[in-house]
Structures are given as structure tokens and as C-alpha cells.
Amino acid sequence: MSVPLRGVKFSTLVLVVQIVFIIIIAFFGRYPDNADYPEIYDPNNTNAGDVNYAKYPNFMDVNGMIFVGFGFLMTFLKNYGFSSVGLNLLLSVVFIQWAAIVRGFIHADILGGEKFHMGVGDMVTYDFATATALISFGAVLGKTSPIQLLVMGIIEILLAQLNEYVGVDLLHVRDIGESMFIHMFGAYFGLAVARVLFDEDIETSSKEGTVYHSDLFAMIGTVFLWIFWPSFNGGFADDQQQRDRAYLNTFLSLCSCTAMTFAVSAIVDRQGRFNMVHVQNSSLAGGVVVGATANMPMEPFGALIFGAVAGIISVLGYRFLTPLMSKRLKIHDTCGVHNLHGMPGVLAAIGSAVLAAMSGSWSLHDRIAIFPETFEENSTVTGALGRTAGQQGGYQFLAATITLGIAIGGGALTGLILKLPIWNAPEDEHLFDDSENWEVPDEGVPLGNSSNHYKISNTHVESRM
Amino acid sequence: MSVPLRGVKFSTLVLVVQIVFIIIIAFFGRYPDNADYPEIYDPNNTNAGDVNYAKYPNFMDVNGMIFVGFGFLMTFLKNYGFSSVGLNLLLSVVFIQWAAIVRGFIHADILGGEKFHMGVGDMVTYDFATATALISFGAVLGKTSPIQLLVMGIIEILLAQLNEYVGVDLLHVRDIGESMFIHMFGAYFGLAVARVLFDEDIETSSKEGTVYHSDLFAMIGTVFLWIFWPSFNGGFADDQQQRDRAYLNTFLSLCSCTAMTFAVSAIVDRQGRFNMVHVQNSSLAGGVVVGATANMPMEPFGALIFGAVAGIISVLGYRFLTPLMSKRLKIHDTCGVHNLHGMPGVLAAIGSAVLAAMSGSWSLHDRIAIFPETFEENSTVTGALGRTAGQQGGYQFLAATITLGIAIGGGALTGLILKLPIWNAPEDEHLFDDSENWEVPDEGVPLGNSSNHYKISNTHVESRM
Amino acid sequence: MSVPLRGVKFSTLVLVVQIVFIIIIAFFGRYPDNADYPEIYDPNNTNAGDVNYAKYPNFMDVNGMIFVGFGFLMTFLKNYGFSSVGLNLLLSVVFIQWAAIVRGFIHADILGGEKFHMGVGDMVTYDFATATALISFGAVLGKTSPIQLLVMGIIEILLAQLNEYVGVDLLHVRDIGESMFIHMFGAYFGLAVARVLFDEDIETSSKEGTVYHSDLFAMIGTVFLWIFWPSFNGGFADDQQQRDRAYLNTFLSLCSCTAMTFAVSAIVDRQGRFNMVHVQNSSLAGGVVVGATANMPMEPFGALIFGAVAGIISVLGYRFLTPLMSKRLKIHDTCGVHNLHGMPGVLAAIGSAVLAAMSGSWSLHDRIAIFPETFEENSTVTGALGRTAGQQGGYQFLAATITLGIAIGGGALTGLILKLPIWNAPEDEHLFDDSENWEVPDEGVPLGNSSNHYKISNTHVESRM
Known about the structure:
The structure is a homotrimer. By secondary structure, chain A is mainly α.
């Protein structure tokens, strides 16, 4: 009777979580104030609503990345497609609500009687927060139960949002596309969880592979992430010039990154062929690597250089580092998030520190628009914090270091919690296998190695009856 | 020689319909007036074109729902993917033009010599009208010929648009995302057609099933419908505040609905596993259920509650009601539109009646913006129709009842017309089978049960030569 | 040892190209001027940034066409899906950068010390230029190596941009959706290359076919191209009225074209069935055929007529012309670009000449807005070039003729260059086969004819070790 219990446990958890969310939001969450619509309520202001036209399409693109992009990118596994796109959907809807609550409590004075506001401009921040946990999902894909994933994400989003608060609100660090606070955090948190959950059976599972069409499904995720990424990096920009720069820099960085991905993929293959894993993932590292600096005046060639470097290290990571990490460090990284989000995120953080330190050479307008805290001796304008450009660079670096620490520490701790034998963790023969959690069509055997696969899962089903 | 005849009959019908459409539109359809572009033609107005920036992206999202969303959502059947996404394309392009004509004749004074205008703001209304018939398509998927579907949609769109005219223009009812006029109408119309066309062979067909990858193709439809749905519910809003509310409410409702979908799906399964049918469809009920109220001030928790309830009843509907309806009531609902559009649509209608009846407690601004017809005793503002909040609630309910009546009556009548032996209705062995209407790749056998499937269709082909 | 050499040759080429691009852009490419952001830098201007809100969503849609649309449309081949969507990604990122450089040198006074600007408004022009080469890719799909494709596109984009310069800047011709300068050019250039590269083995290859699911993957490309096409044709419009017209005309043209596609597809099939090739491709000819005229006042029925004609000739082309061209003219057109881009492009050019010649009957405002060069005797406004409407029609026709000449001549020449035995052209058994250039999953055999396929490729792999 363990099977129905499993369903009951999951359902009860989700039901309770959903009811709690509704109660919290009923007490503390509200629509934006009418004052946010001056074009309606303020007869003297005819134009203030404009900014909303930009916000919603931006949100739509980011939303596409969360539900289409992440969902399909992970469908590359031959027997784990339902879970990839399906659990991605489940996790996202829970995490989005949780992010609304966590962000509300952090950024509104709830204890002082304030409500937190939920508007179109906030929706994209919920998606951003959710992305953090979906990145970690990639590291443990196929090796965790839905309940484990929910618990992981709920802890992670709390920690990630607190970390972001430290970085943005306390240290006054800039990270427009959140390469530190989302990509780096999500990757290293997930890797730490994967380390703690490591099991020798993962290494030897015959199901961790692709089939021809599963690789094509994954490319749906890749191309949509690719095209929408400029909106991810540009969505938070304060003015149209920074926004446009973020769009352009991200686009260019993705281009050179993708070119380098193909070049390096072919050269590290013994037969000079391209590897789908690289194309699906490393092509996107160009979006991560400029995520902390996309609004800065690096000129187009700067973005191209960032992207090219990211493409190179990402493919090399897949080829040499990932197998090594699995064998030596017992960190099994299913999607290779270290190569797509981890190392490019670190590179982005370093880049932001370097560019910030060089911001003394920018135009005064750029310096003030991007780093209002930076102090510039030769000008009459003084940032509120009186920082030099070099100091701002130091703070950027400091925030990255803190992020890394909280991510790894928090991930390890979360991994220990997930090891408790109460979360329906998948047994060995169900690693990378949908049939554990999904009704799979009887005759719809995934391509290749199929008779064996379904013999196993049928046996399993019978043994439970 | 029946085969070429079949092609000739279909082609002649489409050709004639297309030529008639062109003639009607040549006589009566025109571009918008120059006056609609005051920023160009009125030198004193520098800002009036703004609203167009919001309209077009909204249209794009809705267009994505029609062609990508509906098209791929129905590809879940293992041998009916070409028809699902292909016929969805054919039907949409015919229905869009028909909707332009029907709406033109209803809303412009054609007899008085007026032309009807076709602009960017109108395009989205054509897509809306088309959605009605695509929902009905879901109810009869795999059991009807392309000609039957064309005839069905042409009748249905005429009736649905007349019904919408009664509701919106005569009864002054609000249904921003058209949960009554599109979702309810389309679902119950389709179910009535399905009832009349019922045949015992449908129940016993071995082809009404999925394979692993067809379920993944269907998820493409799901995720795109999911992300674009806020634009569907918000596209008709009169001002930015209502639009933003519609976006947020729809997004939140989808979130809680999806969470409940997974929770209930796991608990009603004997082995505690998720069911792809539920995830693909019930997750979207959250968009339908707030479609009539998305612009109303229900606060975020209100949207979450609506969504959660919709998710629960939708999954329960799939699990218990759909098989019962097929067995007892002889209503075979291929896609389960009753669970995705029908019941959530009814719930939306009831919700709109209740909220309207409670609108006396809203801010004066909201009351006037959303129900200009509502009369409020304690204020100095009187709606043109002098209705109380309670009366407006009654009208909302009345419109829903009329919608249900016209949908069921019209659907039954249409079903009878479709039973005439002149529409190339599929014979039993061709139910849920592309090879009746499509050249299917010889060696590209769909997964599973394939040798049998193609033995049948080859025999069929030979027997016709 | 030829295999590693192959990888090295490709990688070196891409690496060198990428470094050269970065150097050129570092020297000559810059962000837009601050003056382009008057709402930021000019305190008197509160509204000037508006136009950017329209530009970016437009770019996003076009970007979706390039990476999602073209990429997946070509995945119809059963064993060539990795290459279709993968090489499409590689080629696009290289061509986008190259287009930025070529356009920069053509349109900025580089020799005079000027830099060229790269902004959000320019990004869409890079995508447009890239589309030209992707269309040609369709003609030679499966028959060329990645290196050949890169070389082809680099030559082609240079020629196509020069041709566009002649047409737009010297001859003052209008082609808003670039049906001449992109679609016609890309198609006839690609066909000329295909002619020169023709080989009897192409005709007899057993791998040039589809499987059930590869046809569904291709439909992803079709529906996204379909929905985004209005943004392609409307993106360059000068004002909102022209933009809206372009959206509406393209939408309507696609509708009637798609209806005709189904009608003609069924009638030319011996069994009255639809053909996926037609649906995937001919449905889109409606976007091409109004590409040169979408902003012109042709009224809705005009757009419907254009589309209907395009659908008819496109399907007839696939059915009768394409096999004939392959057999008689030795032009093997893998994707049938002649039917989707070639003939509809010619039709669009002729249409633009005819409409231009009739522009004397338009409103004065339209005439001036669309053809500022046209001289109109009966008005007080004189175009700078003093042309009559008829003369403008002549210039439109002249530009089309020049385009055709440069495309065919340039394509033939490029084909000869690609015949040099240094570009790793695929040998006969690797035509239409991913395993030449991609690591293909061992057990993930594509459906149908699979054992044979992989026996061949395994042999091949062994023979190289």
C-alpha cells in the first residue's frame, strides 16, 4: 500500500502549501495602488502609463523562458520528458507564489502594518526568483522526487531572495540580469544538493541518455531561451537607453557564444562532429555571462568578447570538467548547470567588478544612471554612499563571494534535509525514469532500448499491486 | 472513384467559400478610417497612437494561442497529429475571415450603406471568435471530416456572435475574457454536436490513445496556452489598470489551478502518479475560470481561489465525469473540453454574477469603469440603465443561461446537419486516424501498435484503387 | 586522420571569422548616440522614446522567425533534424554579425572616419539580412557541409546587401517586407547554387524523406513563422498607419493563402488527401506575396486576393514544377524554396510595380508617405525625384530584375567556389544525414528504415578509426 500513500503524501503537501499561500496572500497581498495609474487617476498626467507597455511584453518573454524554455530544455533525457516539462510547470507555479510572498515580506513593512503589492511589474520578479530554483532542478534532474524538488525550491528561494536583498539593498550592487543572484546562486546551490544526494547508482544508470527526438524536443527549449534572453537581461533596466543596451549586448554575446560553442564542440570531438549537449546548453552561456553588465557601456565588441569566452569555457566544461566532477568530486550534474549557469555566472560577476572599477572612465550620465552610489572626485556630483569606482568594483566582488557562500552552504544543508527518508526519493531503478511518477502510455515506448525499459517498469508496477 | 470525388468536394467547398469571402469583403470591408490615426492626421495630438502599441502584442499572444496553442494541444493522439495541428490551421484561417464578415454585419450598419472596418484592434476579435469553434473541434476531434468541421464552425460562429451581441450589446453584460461567450459556448455546442454524432465504434477504437512523444508535442500547446492566457483575458480591457488586473489575476489563477491539478491528479490515481491528460488540460482551467471577472477588483487571493477550485473540478471531471458521460449520456468528448472549457466556464459565469452583485462595495471608480450600467443609490452617479448591483448580477446570470441554451440547441441542430451523408464523415476504421485525410510517411510509423495501424491503412488505400 | 582534420578546419574557420568580426566591430561599431534617447537627454521631449516600444517586440517576433521558424521548418527530414535546427542556429549567429558589418560599411561613411551604430532598431535588419541566407540554406539542405554553408552565406549576404542598397538607396524602390531583396534573392541565389552542386546521387538518396514525428517538428516552424509574419512585413513601416496596414494585409493574405493551400493540395492528390509539405510551406507564401506591398492601400480584399493566388501557385509548384526542375534542369530544391520564396517573391515584385503604377489614384497622404519620390501632376506637392506613378512602377520592376540577375549570377559563381574540394562537402552516403556532422544517440534511431540507416553510419564511423 506504499503507492497510494505516496500520492497522498504529495497531494497533501501541495494542498496544504496552496492553502497556506492563499491565506498569507489574502492577509498581506494587494493590487498596486491606484496612484500607480496616474493616467487614469491624475487628470494632469496623460503619459505616465507608458512604462507599462514595456513591462508586460518583457514579462511575457521571461515567462516564456520559465515555462517553455526551461521546461523543454530538460526534455533531452529519453525517458524523462514528462517529468522535465511537467514538473517544471508544477514547480514554477508553486515557486512563483512563494516568491511573491517572500519578496513581499522582505520588501514591504509587513510588521508595520503594510501590505505588499502584486502588479505587472512584480510578476517578472516572481519569474526571476523561480528561475533560481529551476536552475538547481537541472542539477538534480532525474534523481529526485517531486516532493524533494518542492522542498528544495522553497528553501532555496527564501535563501536566494535574502541573498539578493543583501546584495542589492544593503551592498548596493548592480546585477541587472541577476547573473550572480540567480544563475550563480542556482547553479552552486544545485551542485551542493547534488553532491549530498550522490549515489553510485546514478553513474551506472542506463537511462541517462537521449534519443534522436528527445534531443529535438530539447532544442525547442534552447531556441526559445536564446531568443527571449535579451528580455531577461533588459527587463529591470531603469531607462530606455540601458534597456536597449542590455538587449543589444545580450543578443551580441549570445551570437559570439554560439559561434564559439560550435567551434569548440567540433574540435574536442575525436571525429570533429558537433555535440547536441553543447549546442543545447553552451549556446546560452552568452546570456548568462553579460547578465551582470548588460546595461553597462561596454560597446558592442565588449559584449562579443564576453560571449566568446563564455562559449569556450562552457563547452570545455562539458567535455572535461563535468565527467571529472562526477567521478572525483561525486557531483553529478545532470544538465550541466555548472557549464551553463555556474562558470558563466562567475565570469559575469568578475566582469561586473572589473567594469565597475573602470566606471570612472564612463560618461558622467552613465555613471550616475548605473551606479548612483559611486563617488567621482572630478565631478560635482557625489553618490549618496561616496564610493569610488574601485570601491564599487570591490562591492560587486564581495556580493559574488557572499552569494557563492550562501548558495553552497545552503545547498549542502538542503541536501541533508532531502536525504531524510520521508520525501519519496526515487529508488535506483527509477532514476531518470518517468514511469515512477507518471502514467506512461503502454504502447508508446520511447525510442531505443525500449523493450528493456518497459520490462523493468512493468515489473515494478506489478510488484506494487 | 470515390476518393478523387472526396478531394474535389472538399476543394470546391473551400474554393467557393474563399471566393465568396473575398467578394463580401471587397464590397463591405475597409481599413480603419484615417481618423483612427490622430497622431498622423491631427497635428494637435501627439500621443493618441499609444494604445496601438498595447493592442498588437496582445493580438500576437492571442494569435499564438490559436495557431500554436490549440494546434499542438490536440496533437496528443498518436495517429492524429497531422490533423490536429493541420486542420486547426485550416479551420482557423477560414473562421477568421468568416468572423470578420459576421462581426462586420452585426456591428456596422451595412444596410444603411456603412462599411465595416478591419484594423489591428479587430484582428484579435476574429481570433476570439475562432477560438469558439476550435473548442468545439476538441470535442469532436478524430470523429469528423474536414468538411464537417468547416460546416460546424461556420454555423457555430454565426450563432456565437449573435449570442455575444445579445449578451454584450443588448444585456450589457461584462465578460472580458469571454468565458461565457467563447468557452462555455464552444464547449457545450461541441458536446451537443458530439452527442448527435455518437457512434458505438468511437468507444471501441484502438487508436484513441497517446504515445510518449505525442504527449510531449501536446505539452507544447499547453505551455504556450498557459503563458499567453493573461493576454487573452486582458486584451479587451478599457484601461491600463483593468488590463494589469486581468494579467495578474489570470496569471495567479493559472498558478493555483496548476498546483491543484497535480495534487488531485496524483490522489485520484491508484498508484499516486500524475496523468498527462490532466496536466495538459486542467492546468489551463485557471485561465477560463477568471475569464469573466479578470478585470474586477477581487484582489490576488480571489484569483488564487478561483484557480484552485477550477483545477480541482477539472481533474475530477476528467477522472469521473468524462467516462460517465461517454457511457451513459453517449457524449464522447475527445479532448475533454467539458473539463477545460465547460465547467470552468460555468464557474466563471457564476463568479461574474456573484461579483457583479457585490459590486456595490467596490470603489466608485471601479464600479463605473467596469459596470457603467450599474446604479448605486448612495452615490450621485447613476448608470445609464439605472441597475442595482444585484440586478447586474442577475443580468450576468441571464446571459450565461441564454448562452447555454443557444449553444446546446444550436449544437444539436448542427449535429443533425452534420449527420447528412454528404460530408464525407469518417468511417469507423478511420476514426482518430490521419491516413484518411493526409499522405502519411510510409516508413514513418507512429510509435506503438504501428504495424497493425499501417496494415489497416495500406489495405484501405489499395482497396480504393 | 581525415576526421580530426575536418573538425580542425571547421573550428579554425569559425574561430578566425569570429575574431575578425570582433576586431572590425571594435574598430568601427558603436552604440547609438545619446541623441537617440531624447526622453533622457532632452528635458523638453517627454515622449520620443515611444517608438522603441514598438521596435523591440517587432524584433522579438522576427528573431523568433529566424531561430524557431526557419530552424524547425527544416526539421522535416527524418535524419537531418539536428543539422536543420542546429546549423540554422550556427549560421544565424555568424550571419547576424556579418550583416552588422556589411550594413555598417554600406550605410555609414567609414572611410570618412564615421563609426556605424548598432542599436535595437538595427538588430532587426541583421535578422532580415540573415533570412536571405537561410532561405538559400533551404535549397541546399542536406547536400552541403557546415563550411560550405558559411562560405555561401558570407558571399550571399554581401551581394544581397549591395543589391538592396542599389534598390532602396539608389533606385528609391519600396519593398517593406523585402520580398524582392530577401525572398526572391535568397531563393534564386540558393537555386543557382543547388544547380551547380547538382549530383545524380542526390536524386536517388533514400534518406530524403520524412517520418511522422519529423513532420510534426516541422509544423512548429510553420506555425511560428505564420503567426510572426505580420511583424516581419510591418517592422520597417514609417508610421503607425502603414504598420497596421502591413499587419492586417499580411494576416489576411496568410489566411486566404492557407485556405487555398489545403484546397489545391487535396485536389492534386490522387486520393484527395492533404500533403504535409504543402501545408508546412505553401501556407506561408501569403506572407511573401504581400511583402513588397503590405503597407500600401490595397484594402483587405486586395490582400486576400494576393494570398489566394500565392497559395495556388505555391502548391502547384510543389506538385508539378519541383520534380520537373530536379529531373530536367538538375535543380534539386530540398525545401522547395522556389515555391515558398521564389515564385511568391516574383509575384510580390510584380504586384508592387502594378500598385506603384496605380498609386496616382491613392490619397495624397498615402502617395507621399509611401512613395515620396513619386511626382503627381495634379497636386502641388512634388516628389524630390519628380517621378510619375507609372515611372515608380517601372523602377519597382527594374529593381526586381536586377535582384534576379545578381541572385542567379552570384549564386552560380558561389556554387563554383563551393565545388572546390576543400570545403568538406558531404559524400554521397552522407547526404541528408546528421551522423556526418553530429554525435547521434546510439539507440535513438530515427523512426523507420532505421536499422539500415545506422548500419551504414556505423560502418562509416569504424572505417575512419
